[in-house]
Amino acid sequence: MSKSSFEKKIEQGFYAIGRQRDQLASEKRRLARQLRYAQHSARLASLSKQYDFGMVFFAAMGAVLLIVFDGRSGSDAWLTPVLSLSLMLFACANALRGRKMVSRIRNFNDRFGSWQF
Q: Which range of residues forms the domain containing residue 31?
């Protein structure tokens, strides 16, 4: 084997190693992007479920307090409807935040869901 042929094979080996390194770096970036997408999507879904639970919980508590108010009378009877209405108002605020979260999830999926991972 001549010296120039040996040098060419070494150059080809370096090029092959360089291409493999670039491919591995590209694969690493792709997997990191896919992992970030999955983590963020799961976090948004979890927050959405928490808002849904909060809305149902506070609305139910407000409704229960209104039912209790019907059977109750006395000098402090004004406290129960005020508390129940404030709980229902808080449930409405949770519902609005939940709708905003659903919109945020939809926008996120529209923007990043079509990426070719």
A: 3-115
